[in-house]
């Protein structure tokens, strides 16, 4: 490691001290900012190429001119160096590297384990619960579509455990033929396990084996003259065959990703087509951050190295461009995932068609992105003119409050920049300690928690602060900023217009105490409305999650002495929680295991 120095960095002298071993090098400027991370099969040769060449590309020359320090890490193999480089780029985000920006985790289909009646569910996040996780899927929509199919085909429950445990009669899903009613024992554990096994086989890509088993069971039911059972199995087999014919992609291997890249106007789009078990799971687009003069092959190489760091790797990766270090990337991915990985660029037949599909998708998405960015730039400039700012705002924040009659109040903060929403900076605030339904107090608390860090010199200061509401909410914002001593922020209230119609909003400018009506044709108002609507959506979704989480837990679970068995007995005896709430102490004592003292505690808990 080379210590920082106030003198100009002597690259030639530094290179003379380096080893010829493989490793990773990092360049820093005089402020300690990381400029670039690279890997090398020979550190001496690779780092020397930056300082010993008489001529370099403009972007490389611009970076070299800023280098004040270089650090190196020696590795055992070049594959290790490639892996370390990818990890450092993703973690440290150097300015001159191609950076994959994908903060969102991928969704899975989750099949719970260690239960008599397992459930299927949507899952995103850490996979640390007992059971199986199928995926990852490219989008939440594809997971929910798969769950909907599972519910129709195999009727395995998808309800929450708290809901399942407290049922005294089957729910609507049973009534419409999408569940077999395990909550009230309408299906035996053995038959239910058979349905669960078929779900696992189907999600593993063995739909043909599922069909064969169901056909055999259908024939047995027919031979036993159980024609109603045979007819139900016949319909299930027909639905499975139809689905298999629709979704199975001829020519796709069990696991394959097809990746194409297009670059235009300084923006790159990487489009990925996902194939798992011979079934197309759809596409997803990525927009990596680019240094100057990047080529599609460079982007694809960096994309693969970073993207598969923490995700399952398919056995086959089809690329639209030949990349450097193709063999090295294959070896690194194979070491990481434990199976062979093929990277192909010259393909024919079905694979060539898949690649053309990915390339067309990348071009279409890139064209849409460029048009959207140009439109967004126009809106930011118009907002600058509308608010009388010296320059277009670089960061807009918007706050909104959501609750249901004061219950589970949540405040949202969303952030927009010149490139659109910056979702990694979104924040929610669970509001507590206020009078339920007091929106002013909720806004005051959320803004205080947000801008206290700015006052302490830690948080990022927005250029424009939008408040969803009228003059009362704006006053709360001004009070908070004054209390904390935060200045230099343009505060704007967004009040709904007559009839609450879009395009008729009133903007309240806190600085000049003016109200303006930009009108439905104003690009600035379009931007403000988009930010406000996103804040509203984010607040509502957070409120609903908090409210549902609070309601998942039965009030009976809080009563000392009421375990799962007594709770179930109470709910069955009175037909649900509403019946228990309506019962008196004497009626509660009629349930087996409930004495007077426990009955009084239950009554008090339900009527507190």
Description:
- This protein is of the alpha+beta class and 608 residues long.
- The protein is 44% helix and 19% strand.
- The strands form 4 sheets. Strands 12, 13, 14, 15, 16, 17, 18 and 19 form an 8-stranded mixed beta sheet that branches.
- A hairpin with a 2-residue loop joins β13 and β14.
- α8 packs antiparallel against α9, α9 packs antiparallel against α10 and α13 crosses α16.
- InterPro entries: GIY-YIG_endonuc, GIY-YIG_endonuc_sf, GIY-YIG_UvrC_Cho, RuvA_2-like, UVR_dom, UVR_dom_sf, UvrABC_protein_C, UvrC.
- It holds the Pfam family GIY-YIG.
- The UvrABC repair system catalyzes the recognition and processing of DNA lesions. UvrC both incises the 5' and 3' sides of the lesion. The N-terminal half is responsible for the 3' incision and the C-terminal half is responsible for the 5' incision.
Chain-wise SSE layout:
Layout (H helix, E strand, L loop, with lengths): L10 H5 L7 E6 L5 E7 L2 H9 L6 H7 L4 E6 L3 H15 L14 E6 L7 E5 L6 E4 L5 H14 L7 H5 L6 H4 L13 H15 L3 H17 L3 H21 L7 E10 L2 E10 L2 E8 L9 H12 L8 E4 L6 H12 L4 E3 L4 H39 L8 E9 L2 E11 L2 E2 L5 E4 L8 H17 L8 E5 L2 H14 L5 E6 L10 E4 L4 E3 L6 H30 L11 H11 L2 H6 L2 H4 L7 H11 L2
Parallel strand pairs: 7-10, 10-11, 12-16, 16-17
Antiparallel strand pairs: 1-2, 1-3, 4-5, 4-6, 7-8, 8-9, 12-13, 13-14, 13-15, 17-18, 18-19
């Amino acid at each position: 490691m080379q210590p920082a120095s106030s003198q100009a960095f002597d690259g030639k002298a530094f290179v003379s001290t380096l080893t010829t071993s493989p490793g990773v090098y990092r360049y820093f400027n005089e402020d300690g900012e990381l400029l670039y991370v690279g890997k090398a099969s020979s550190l001496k040769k690779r780092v020397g190429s930056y300082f010993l060449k008489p001529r370099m590309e403009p972007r490389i020359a611009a970076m070299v001119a800023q280098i004040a320090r270089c650090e190196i890490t020696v590795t055992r193999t070049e594959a290790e160096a490639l892996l370390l480089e990818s990890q450092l780029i993703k973690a440290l985000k150097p300015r001159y590297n191609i950076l994959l920006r994908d903060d969102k985790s991928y969704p899975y289909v989750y099949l719970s384990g260690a239960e008599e009646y397992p459930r299927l569910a949507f899952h995103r996040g850490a996979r640390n619960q007992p059971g199986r996780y199928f995926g990852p899927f490219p989008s939440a929509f594809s997971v929910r579509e798969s769950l909907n199919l599972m519910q129709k085909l195999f009727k395995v429950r998808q309800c929450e455990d708290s809901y399942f445990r407290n049922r005294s009669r089957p729910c609507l899903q049973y009534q419409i033929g999408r569940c077999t009613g395990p909550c009230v024992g309408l299906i035996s554990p053995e038959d239910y396990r058979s349905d669960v096994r078929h779900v696992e086989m189907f999600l593993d890509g063995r739909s043909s084996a599922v069909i064969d088993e169901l056909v055999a069971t259908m024939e047995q039911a027919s031979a036993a003259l159980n024609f109603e059972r045979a007819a139900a199995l016949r319909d299930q087999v027909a639905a499975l065959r139809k689905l298999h014919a629709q979704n199975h992609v001829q020519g796709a291997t069990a696991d394959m990703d097809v990746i194409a890249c297009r670059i235009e106007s300084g923006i790159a789009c990487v489009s990925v087509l996902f194939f798992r078990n011979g079934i197309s799971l759809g596409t997803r687009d990525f927009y990596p951050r680019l240094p100057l003069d990047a080529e599609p092959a460079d982007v694809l190489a960096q994309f693969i190295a970073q993207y598969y760091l923490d995700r399952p790797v398919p056995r086959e990766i089809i690329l639209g461009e030949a990349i450097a270090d193709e063999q090295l990337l294959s070896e690194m991915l194979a070491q990481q995932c434990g199976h062979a990985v093929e990277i192909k660029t010259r393909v024919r037949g079905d694979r060539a068609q898949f690649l053309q599909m990915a390339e067309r998708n990348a071009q279409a998405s890139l064209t849409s992105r460029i048009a959207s960015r140009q439109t967004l730039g126009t809106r930011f400039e118009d907002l600058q003119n509308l608010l009388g700012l010296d320059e277009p705002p670089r960061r807009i924040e918007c706050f909104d409050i959501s609750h249901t009659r004061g219950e589970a109040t949540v405040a949202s903060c969303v952030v927009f920049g010149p490139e659109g929403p910056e979702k990694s900076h979104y924040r929610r605030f669970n509001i507590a300690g206020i009078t339920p339904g007091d929106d002013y107090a909720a806004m005051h608390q959320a803004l205080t928690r947000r801008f206290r860090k700015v006052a302490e010199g830690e948080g990022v200061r927005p250029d424009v602060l939008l408040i969803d509401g009228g003059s009362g909410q704006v006053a709360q914002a001004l009070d908070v900023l004054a209390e904390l001593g935060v200045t230099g922020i343009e505060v704007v209230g967004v009040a709904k217009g007559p009839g609450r119609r879009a395009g008729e909003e009133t903007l309240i400018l806190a600085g000049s105490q003016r109200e303006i009506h930009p009108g439905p044709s104003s690009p600035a108002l379009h931007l403000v409305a988009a930010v406000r609507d996103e804040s509203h959506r984010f607040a509502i979704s957070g409120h609903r999650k908090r409210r549902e989480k609070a309601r998942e837990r039965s009030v009976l679970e809080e009563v000392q002495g009421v375990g799962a068995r007594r709770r179930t007995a109470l709910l069955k005896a009175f037909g649900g929680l509403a019946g228990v709430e309506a019962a008196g102490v004497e009626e509660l004592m009629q349930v087996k295991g409930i004495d007077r003292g426990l009955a009084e505690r239950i009554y008090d808990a339900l009527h507190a």
